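Your task
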Amino acid sequence: MVVSFRAIVAYGIGLVSLGTLATAALGQAPQDGSIRKSAGQRPVAAPSVAAAPALAPKAAAPVPAVFGTVDLKAVFDAYDKVKAQKEEFKAAAMAKHNELMKLQSEGQEEAQKLAKMTPNSVDAKKIEDHMSEIKAKLEAGREQAQRDFALRESEMLATLYKEVQEMVRRVAEAKGMTYIVQTSNEQISGSDPNSVMAAMAKTVVYADPRNDITRDVAHNLNRQYQLAGGVVPKATTAGATPSGN
């Protein structure tokens, strides 16, 4: 069991308070020693103060609930860092794709050579062995790329979400809000049944737009990113970033 230093301090304060109250009730000054003497009686040990129960701390008054809303998808779409990292991710994926395509092209060239060779000849055997090596490298490269990019995407999204979550907290505290509920501002289309079903599955049916902090969060994230020297993505145009209310 982990002992809380805060609980120890609170318990000690409770003992001091009880000792002071007992002394005041008897009209006596605190006595030095663990016993007191009474006429005609043998010395009797004074009741141990430590045996008295600690006073229970008074429960703090609950903080009034003030709700706000945020559209996380809209925040991610407007966050310049997300756009920049998407471009980097796409470039890295394309580079890996080109690397694997070279292996595939090499395998195709070897297959064309093999077609012109005498079956079961020494040269044909060498080409077949080379093709097997290329095939193994290609399959291993694809599997490794899938693992690497899946892990990279997961780590990237985790970092970005933590940044968004922290900014949501800061904006909420600045506005005196104690709860932020996730909502979606996507429009419902009658021609798209999925959008209707998604809307019906939402927990929040209505929220006052005046308490929505989506634009504030996106604006402050981009400002923080730019001040830190972040690269503005090419897809971002002037005036496209949402500003605070």
Summary: The radius of gyration is 36 Å. Confidence is low (pLDDT under 50) at residues 1-41, 238-245. The first helix runs from residue 5 to 26.
